[in-house]
Design a protein that fits this description.
Number of domains: 3
CATH superfamily of the largest domain: Nucleoside phosphorylase/phosphoribosyltransferase catalytic domain
Strand order of the largest sheet: 1-4-5-13-14
CATH topology of the largest domain: Pyrimidine Nucleoside Phosphorylase, Chain A, domain 2
Strand content: 15-25%
Bound molecules: uracil
Distance between the termini: 47 Å
Number of strands: 14
CATH architecture of the largest domain: 3-Layer(aba) Sandwich
Number of helices: 16
Structural class: alpha+beta
Oligomer: single chain
Helix content: 40-55%
Mean pLDDT: 93
Shape: globular
Largest sheet: 5 strands, mixed
Radius of gyration: 22 Å
Length: 444
Amino acid sequence: MNIVEIIEKKRDRREISEEEIRFFVGGVCDGSIPDYQISAFLMAVCINGMTDPEISVLTDAMAKSGDSVDLSYIDGIKVDKHSSGGVGDKTTLVVAPMAAACGLPVAKMSGRGLGFSGGTIDKLEAIPGFRTSLSEEEFIRFIKRDKIALMGQTKNVAPADKKLYALRDVTGTVPSIPLIAASIMSKKLACGSDSIVLDVKCGSGAFMKSLDDAVLLAQKMVAIGERNGRRVYGIVTDMNQPLGSAVGNALEVKEAIDTLKGKGPEDFTELCYIIGSFMLTAGAKAKDTREAREMLKASIADGSALEKFRRFVENQGGDPSITENYGILPSAAVKRELLSPCGGVVTAIDGEKTGAAAVIAKAGRLSKTDKIDFGSGFVLLSKIGDRVEKGQPLAEIYAPDEKSADEAEKMLAEAYSFGEKAEIKPMLLAYTDREGTYFDKNER
Ligand code: URA
């Protein structure tokens, strides 16, 4: 088989065969295909797309390029959740203990953040002593006893994706629906769950900027799941501004704990209920999302979700009193406020610019080796739709030094737009599963 012919076929919009796709993935993994040919192939896919059978085979080949995780020791339906990545997205920290408190076992493997999207592992490592590397024996013991454990990916999960993602990152080929779908789903298939709730973010703070693209990505991932024997629920949610108020690791941990106490920001709390209710329904813990939502609300009201979080932190080496004593968390050396340059209504908070500002403040990283300052980030005091006066604080800025605070302040100021009236979108924009796609949540 010849890689040049495969690239040419994709260039000319012809379908490539299963054999050719497996040959390509094999060559990516064993190093026999050089980076320039892999990159040319990726660009051809980025421009010309892939058919559903092509995407499905690519995903399967990537999933089988490394180890797979065996979750058969957990009874019942294993449900995973995944977000396509967004600014201020700390959903797992709330949804995992809520779902566990409602009886669903949550065996989660998560990654670190890169660029504007933060990673759950980084957020948890802001908690002093918290261990994200667990032995398999510990992982299983915690899930069996407490229904919750979370670890970084220790196994060699989908190494083909690691190689392809690194090349996509430097060749302008990240925003390709077939490549994103195969990348996400290859890792999900290798991680062994029966059912997956995918939160596809849509808006300025997400990879998918338009609703059409976000829905298409969700549909592709549902189709890949079905072809590979997994049930996938794709929800498309709004990310036209950062999620909640906190952006930055320790700040997001605090906001997650506040949410578990029933005192979280409205938009973030709503998203947690949406994702949690699909998870409980997928895991057969509730008959429908309405019943699931009531169960989740009860877990907040009776304190059982917060108690699960405390147990989770204690199991993994952190101090459970963190839920009452936020002083345990790292804090930034410099704190200041971003003041509104004018009076008016906040009409937009650009997610990508907010994410870039967070990287400048050292709350996120641009390359894998960058060091994070856990205390850094922002607390947004005004969100879309809020009326502000000139000189009113829009956000608190936390940074390790004055220079990064200056630069982050400048970038964050650029994220805000003002006007007379703002369009406020609902959190749940669309939902798709094997039965269809719905744009109004009452349709289901
Ligand atoms: N998340 C992934 O894991 N892969 C992508 O390509 C994009 C987001």
